[in-house]
Amino acid sequence: MDNILCIIPARGGSKGLPGKNIKTLIDKPLIAWTIDASLKSKYINKVIVSTDDREIADISMKYGATIIQRPAQFATDTSSTMDVIIHTLTYLENKENYKPDYVALLQCTSPLRNENHIDEAIEKILNNKIEVESLISVTKEEHPPWWLRTINTDGYIERYFEYDVMKSTRRQDFTDLYRPNGAIYIAKTEVLLDTKSFQTSKTVPYIMDYRSSIDIDTEIDFILAETIIKSI
Length: 232
Fold this sequence. Notes:
Blueprint: E1 4-9, E2 24-25, E3 28-29, H1 30-40, E4 44-51, H2 54-62, E5 66-69, H3 81-96, E6 102-105, H4 115-127, E7 134-140, E8 149-151, E9 157-159, E10 178-188, H5 189-195, E11 203-207, H6 219-231
Parallel strand pairs: 1-4, 1-6, 4-5, 7-11
Antiparallel strand pairs: 2-3, 6-10, 7-10, 8-9
């Protein structure tokens, strides 16, 4: 059976919503929703929280995650998630001689992504009939980008993308488009280390509904997530 590592990055600083990773959502800290879902997965073998923050570390351990202390150089506003992933993989290989077959990146700002989503995504990457190197969760884009407008230097509205207005006026007239929702990223470890990216020419989508795709970045997002959870 393939060995699958889950990495949950959780930096202490947050400009959009200070302290959001440990802010209480309904009955537990935001990060706990992702830890719980990853621990309930049928396929994930190890759950790591990479953090530079002592309080996040303590809460994460309380909910069952293993902690890897993130070095200061990977905890700045300009640090990339890929830097964190590579540091985690390097640490585990050097300290524990552990190297997973796959890495699942689960960001704690997606609390409505549950263990069923995780397992379905893993099954899709493991059991696909075509060759698959990675998977990214997406949700359907409700608003066609052709509807976007810009404001020119004279102050007038202009179309950002040109299209045949006479042929495409309704939403259903446009091609279906999807955007990454930030909930689930999975890749073969070797591919990830080689490409430094979750998207390659052999990446498949895992399509999620809009409600489950809520990504918390602001106070309004937090209120929306609370409202949805209470309605379930």
